[in-house]
Amino acid sequence: MSENTTTIYEQPLNERIRTFLRLEFLFARIHHSIQRDEIFSHREAIDAMLNVLSIFERSDLKAEIIKEVERLVTTLSALENTPGVDRQALDLLLAELDQTLDALQIRKAGIGQALKENEFLYSIRQRSSIAGGTCDFDLPAYHYWLQHTPLADRHNQLRYWLEQFVAVEAAIDISLRLIRGSTGFSDAQAENGFFQRSLDGNQPCQLIRVMINTQAAYFPEISGGKHRFTVRFMLFDINQRPQQINQDVPFRLSCCNM
């Protein structure tokens, strides 16, 4: 299967990776929206940035991210004397991790502090919990900024706010890149649409990845914990609840345990 003809579905198996994937999704939304000029795209960028900020306010996530990067440094450092390892590539990865770690630790203030202290964004956050609460009559200052601020100035302001998360985004990016790349895909088959596998407790799996043909009329529902995971292939029907397929399904599987 080539990348152009396949779709990958992922399932995190712990809370840290679950949060990392959500942040990756939000950062992708922000970058997509900032690159556009439309008012509603810039609304989308601010909405996604405020969602990122909300995630960081729920827990000491910065410490969790630092802990994950340090874990990856330790894991990769242990490979330095392993025969057959590409030392140059390994050194580049370790240098990138060290640089990311330094950037996280240098930032003394809380993640997104400039966004938290901005009264304009605070007013938007207050209204965001209400359905349709950020429309023009609710937030005339927001309406003014979107309608009257020159496009270049809006772009610059959005990029300035996004810079508050640069170190975090870099850490999320390299962490997920290494975890995804730690284990290749292998062939598997779901009998009557169902697949189950036990997990090795000595090598905790962090992420399950399932690759199927893009043209398939079904999708995988993945669930799992520390000891096992299951994959059920469901027929897609927009008008009713999906049903498990009743035929064998070949697919590609990766259990990422870095």
From TrEMBL:
Highest taxon in the source lineage: Bacteria
Compartments (UniProt record): Cytoplasm
Single biological process term from Gene Ontology: division septum assembly
SUPFAM superfamilies per the UniProt record, alphabetical: YacF-like
InterPro entries per UniProt: ZapD, ZapD_C, ZapD_sf
Any Pfam family the entry gives: ZapD
Coiled coil: 62-107
Entry keyword Coiled coil: yes
Keyword Membrane: no
Family listed: Belongs to the ZapD family.
Protein name: Cell division protein ZapD
